[in-house]
Amino acid sequence: MRTKLILLVEDDDGVAAVIRTRLESCGEFSVDRAPTASDALRRLAIELPDAMLLDTTLPDLPVQEICRSMRSRARTISLPCILLGDGRKGLRAVDGLSIGADDYITKPIDVEELEARLRAVLRRRGPWPLERGLQAFHGAHIDVDFGGAEISVDGTPVSLTRRELLLLRALVERRNRLLTRGELSTAWGADARDCRVVDSAMWKLRRKLRSAGSQIETVVGFGYRFNEPSA
Fold it and tell me: I want to staple 91 with a disulfide (CB 3.0 to 4.6 A). Which of 14, 56, 169, 183 is the partner?
């Protein structure tokens, strides 16, 4: 089994040592530590880890700025991120989740709980992250730069969530082919058994895509197809 690389962004030497020892002792993870936010951003540009543990009270950059920077780049938009928060100060859990974190755990860290939460976010990570696969699509009504997360419909910019981007890419990668709800759900790691999740996401995507949304065909009882005229 491949060892998963975890980027630990933590300026406290003691906290970092405890987390590293626990995660590496199980043989499943290797930990690369960055003591500052600036160092973390440099490392992310060189090598993409499997997940990131991010302290919310770093001295050099606000955690909000780090998360926004990470989620604005195709390379890191789907990178699993757990915030390590100080319950007495700094970013609250609800605020951290709203800016793109996948989970939040309060200090002092229960390392056993952290390990369990880390495994959980890695399981939820979709198999089609935006940094891999189709990077651009130019259709009859829609132009998409998946690498830069830029979408326009009939020349007008459209804003999509990460989930909607992944769903759209799944559709256009296999355009003119029927995809089941189960296949589409894997675009972001949803439970393939819950068809309502896919249907709800598809409804929202269609509304945002306006004229291009009419190209998404519902095949009752089976799934969806993105119809694109042949060039």
Answer: 56
Residue that the structure tokens 């369990």 belong to: 116
Q: Using CA atoms, how far apart are residues 166 and 162, in angstroms rounded to an integer?
A: 6
Handedness of CA 55, 61, 67, 73 (dihedral sign): negative
Per DSSP, what are the bridge partners of residue 137? 144
Runs of H (alpha helix) within the chain:
13-25, 37-46, 63-71, 93-98, 111-124, 162-173, 181-185, 195-209
């759900």: which residue's tokens? 185
pTM (2 d.p.): 0.57
Dihedral pair phi/psi, residue 23, rounded to 5°: -70, -40
